[in-house]
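Re: flavin mononucleotide structure - here you go.
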Amino acid sequence: MSLDLESANRTLGGLRPYPVAVTTVADGRANGLMSLSAGAAAIVPEAPRVTISLTKYNLTHDMVVSSGVFAMHLLANDPDIIDASLAILMGLGGSSGRDGDKVAPFATKPGVTGVPILLDALSYVEGRVVHALDVEESTIFVADVVGAETLREGHRLNVGEAWSKLPPEWIEQYESNHVPQVDSARRNRGLIA
Ligand SMILES: Cc1cc2nc3c(=O)[nH]c(=O)nc-3n(C[C@H](O)[C@H](O)[C@H](O)COP(=O)(O)O)c2cc1C
């Protein structure tokens, strides 16, 4: 029986609806990206853990492998802050740090691990990686939460709301940038030459 991809995607898609801004620092250089892969990774309330999955194609992946630290920020969806949230999403998710400093345009402060904390975010956790699972196309990182802060009260921005407010030309650019990323993942899994 052939695999029912439509049902697989219907089941798996949208399970993690909150786009998070991941920042890191390695060798004195800051960078970050957007991710839809973040989640809680522990049930012990006094010792939280966070997980993210980063594609090997992305510079942030190599930097987290090297430094073992990152921050994971939720973005806000309230009228006074939505423009700043969309600017972070477009700034970190729209291009690679290989092409320039993506973090510099944003207001930041150093976190306890030294990673840049985005001051316009809703809240964040900072993590030190304790396990990393290589899954060929990406690495799944699990980190002890070593810092956390609520920066403002408000509502989380979910990906559907974000997508409905982003400029169509940015979405088009993002989708075309995504193609080589998926091909790289296919290559890393031996699905194409
Ligand atoms: C909503 C959204 C979700 C994303 N989810 C992930 C993800 O889970 N993992 C990942 O590696 N990249 C993800 N990306 C892609 C990266 O954010 C994007 O490729 C970024 O430009 C990589 O930058 P870098 O090369 O500086 O690390 C996502 C992008 C967007 C806009």
